[in-house]
Amino acid sequence: MRVILQPEPFDAGAALSDFSAGLHAAGAVVSFSGLVRGEGGRLVAMEIEHYPGMTEKALAAIAAQARARWSLEDALVIHRHGRLRVGETIMMVATAAPHRAAAFEAAAFLMDYLKSRAPFWKKEIGPDGATWVAARESDEAALRRW
User: Fold this and answer.
1) Planar angle of CA 138, 91, 136, nearest 5 degrees
2) What residues does 126 pair with on adjacent strands?
3) Residues 41-51, buried b or exposed e (16+ Cβ, 10 A)?
4) Measuring CA to CA, which of 6, 23, 93, 117 is 20 to 30 A from 55?
5) pLDDT digits (tens, 9 = 90+) for 43-56
6) CA 45, CA 65: separation in Å to the nearest integer?
7) Residues 48, 80: contact at Cβ < 8 Å?
8) Selection from 69, 92, 91 nearest residue 82 by Cα
9) What percent of the chain has pLDDT over 70?
10) How far apart are the two ends of the chain, measured CA to CA in Å?
11) CA distance 1 to 92
12) How does DSSP classify residue 39?
């Protein structure tokens, strides 16, 4: 299980290939990558802040929970911080499990956690200025299913 926080862009395809190499008990690998949306021209960049040390610990704990709950062979979370432009990859999760349902569910669980509980602070930057991203009820509702 790996948790990686970094400001630099990463190649999601290469990360998935590295993650999948050597998995012998997995019958399924699921990955998801999140991108910075342009919001119809309303957004030009996003800034993501976090507390080093605390964030890694929180993400490792939720990944360990997913690994135990769905009997995952492995899990990967990559999340960027700093200033990201529209179209750039923000994050990626990958899960490996004996069967596809567990891999899909674990990936969805990790995504719902990252969206609503992970200790990141996001600021949207547009032509008219910057605003902090507030919690959304739809994200909270998604998390409640777990």
Assistant:
1) 15
2) 129
3) eebeebebebe
4) 23
5) 999 999 999 999 99
6) 32
7) yes
8) 91
9) 100
10) 21
11) 13
12) G
> Confidence band (pLDDT; 50, 70, 90) for 92?
very high
Q: How far apart are CA 132 and CA 117, in angstroms?
A: 16
The residue behind tokens 């032509």 is 127
In this structure, which amino acid lies at residue 13? G
pLDDT at 41 over 90: no
Length of the chain: 146
Three-state SS string over 42-101 comes to CCCEEEEEECCCHHHHHHHHHHHHHHHHCCCCEEEEEEECEEEECCCEEEEEEEEECCHH
The pLDDT value given to residue 40: 86
According to CATH, the superfamily of the domain at 2-144 is: Molybdopterin biosynthesis MoaE subunit (3.90.1170.40)
Provide the 10 A C-beta neighbour count for residue 105. Answer: 17
* Structural domain boundaries in the chain: 2-144
Cβ(67)–Cβ(128) below 8 Å = no
